[in-house]
TrEMBL record:
Organism from which the protein derives: Tateyamaria omphalii
UniProt KW keywords: Oxidoreductase
Pfam family name, one: ADH_zinc_N
InterPro entries reported in the protein's UniProt record: ADH-like_C, ADH_N_2, ER, GroES-like_sf, MDR_fam, NAD(P)-bd_dom_sf
Domain Enoyl reductase (ER): 14-327
Name of the protein described by the UniProt record: NADP-dependent oxidoreductase
Top-level taxon in the UniProt lineage: Bacteria
GO molecular function (one): oxidoreductase activity, acting on the CH-CH group of donors, NAD or NADP as acceptor
Length: 333
């Protein structure tokens, strides 16, 4: 019996393309003592996937020939460990493949939530990243103004909705009139600036008449530079990602550092979601309450088929997703 997997055929030197990946048929893995055989149900597609191809980050660099890493929701097919049983739903650091084996102690047993996709979106990486970054670093107060870039994306949409639930004014930045309409009409943001229309500084200043207290940055580059110029004194900048910089050989950064940080006494801090894992239960309780109250709408963008994972990532980098992007490899049990 064979198993499909997708490897990185070659490392991109510029824009990521389908030719950088290869779909392979390989032998079905067999779990050794203390391991589990997992069937992939859903794979998370994140901008960070692209950054891993550029070198070591918070994880080892992805090299040519490696199966493409991912975070996945799986069910246990076979277990040689007392920790897990067939049929258990787990989260695992995995790869783009139909089946994988993993040490049982390195996967996390999950509750059976319907649909399982919520374990990747609102109760998973996206929702927890939004909650931890905004609450722990942004520390918003009711009445303050929050700006979030990539506002129609997986994390940005939840950041804005959490901000509204806390009583803040929330302004998004997104690409194109359709996405901006989605951000205000569906997600309830107070305003949204279309960066593709140009004049971002002027439009953002008009949308934030009292300045910006918290900026949740998902894109870096020119948008970060522009937003820093509108921050209030002692504002907080939450550095979550830099999607504008991942798919290029000529990355750019804000030119107003460190001057604007000093003059405005800003606090600028980066993080990854695992930094606050100790508070995951608190995040889940809050997110569940807001969903139940109708204050958070769950938005998901699910692409069907393992073979479509490369295009799903390429599309994400081009901004064609609305909500949390993931690839469905197998059916929910």
């Amino acid at each position: 019996m064979t198993n499909r997997q997708i490897v990185v055929a070659s490392l991109p030197q510029g824009t990521l393309e389908p030719a950088h990946f290869e779909l392979q048929d390989v032998p079905m893995p067999t779990p050794q003592d203390g391991e589990v055989l997992l069937r992939t149900i859903l794979m998370s597609i994140d901008a960070a996937n692209r950054s891993w191809m550029q070198g070591a980050t918070y994880r080892d660099a992805v090299k040519a020939g490696d199966p493409m890493p991912t975070y996945a929701i799986c069910d246990v097919v076979k277990s040689t460990s007392p920790r897990l049983s067939p049929g258990d739903i787990v989260a695992a650091e995995s790869v783009w493949a139909d089946h994988v084996t993993r040490p049982a102690h390195k996967v996390q047993k999950l509750p059976k939530v319907e649909p399982l996709s919520h374990l990747l979106s609102v109760y998973g990486i996206a929702g927890k990243t939004a909650f931890h970054g905004l609450m722990q670093i942004g520390q918003p107060l009711a009445g303050e103004t929050i700006v979030v870039s990539a506002a129609a994306g997986s994390v940005g949409g939840y950041v804005g909705q959490i901000g509204k639930a806390l009583g803040c004014r929330v302004v998004g930045i997104a690409g194109g009139p359709d996405k901006c309409a989605f951000v205000t009409d569906a997600l309830g943001f107070d305003a949204c600036v279309d960066y593709r229309a140009g004049g971002v500084f002027k439009a953002l200043r008009a949308a934030c008449p009292d300045g910006i207290d918290v900026y949740f940055d998902n894109v870096g580059g020119d948008i970060l530079e522009t937003t820093l110029g509108l921050m209030n004194e002692r504002g907080r900048v939450v550095c979550c990602g830099a999607i504008s910089q991942y798919d290029t050989t000529n990355p750019t950064g804000p030119r107003n550092l460190p001057g604007v940080v000093v003059v405005k006494r800003l606090r600028m801090e980066g993080f990854i979601v695992m930094d606050f894992a100790r508070d995951d239960a608190k995040a889940t309780r809050a997110l569940q309450a807001w969903v139940a109250q109708g204050k958070i709408k769950v938005t998901e963008d699910i692409v069907d088929g393992l073979e479509n994972a490369p295009q799903a990532l390429i599309g994400l980098l081009n901004g064609d997703n609305t909500g949390k992007r993931m690839v469905r490899v197998g059916a929910d049990p």
